[in-house]
């Protein structure tokens, strides 16, 4: 018997930790292409910063020709840019790595999507100018705290290579889904970096500095680094572009179903190009069929793609359902994830089990 899997209208965030607050989006119950702000996943390394008037100014300095302090009013007067994009925590699906890795045990909901409005970072650099030897752009947030591994106080700070910082879709956002960014998601200003894992999209921007060297802060060179070997740090490299990925939203894992027709639904996204195919298997990977991909209102940008597959099941029993996405760069979800010490970038073929009675 078929049913509307999105008839529920009161989902809640899924708590992973309270201090600092880390909460998952109830991804299985998000039917639209814009995640409501109260259901957008929350990822914090430290407690929320205190909000005061100083937060409404952004100084830009370092290797620039004209150091400038931009006010909220200044940003609102500049040409705006709207970007529809997925923001996915690098640790999304960490819980599924084998062997297990330490860190927030995210399942499938450390990813959300919506519409961000702001000013291209490159627009601000047109005003400040850049010195010829400019190499990286450091963005520092107001959130801070003690790192027990280093026994020192740090603010959350990241850098971008100049080329990525100058991309017109890399923006300092001040709106989310046509409203001011909620405080817990970076109000009044946050960086939004499409196609990169969300650790790059620094919240509560405090200041921006351009440097002519390589930034080596701990959130750049200790965290958000792939360490492929368990016993040492050989072969490590930075976490940057989102992997191609998919998630089955409905049916739910371990759900009991009746014989008949069922709609298998889900989402797929990528950090390069766009999703071209999503394949579904209802027999544990022995055979595959193409799902139908919906293109919403002709707006793609950096959004996830919604997909569906009409499944007619007449036999009772237990079934393993798989989803496998491919993008326009021919990147495809692998059978097994790329294991790494910190559990970043999980993108193995998604799977659930159901029982038909």
TrEMBL record:
Its cofactor is Mo-molybdopterin. CDD domains: SO_family_Moco_dimer. Pfam families: Mo-co_dimer, Oxidored_molyb. The keyword Oxidoreductase applies. Residues 243-356 form the Moybdenum cofactor oxidoreductase dimerisation domain. Keywords: Metal-binding, Molybdenum, Oxidoreductase. Residues 45-217 form the Oxidoreductase molybdopterin-binding domain. SUPFAM superfamilies: E set domains, Oxidoreductase molybdopterin-binding domain. This is Sulfite oxidase. The lineage of its organism: Bacteria, Bacillati, Bacillota, Bacilli, Bacillales.
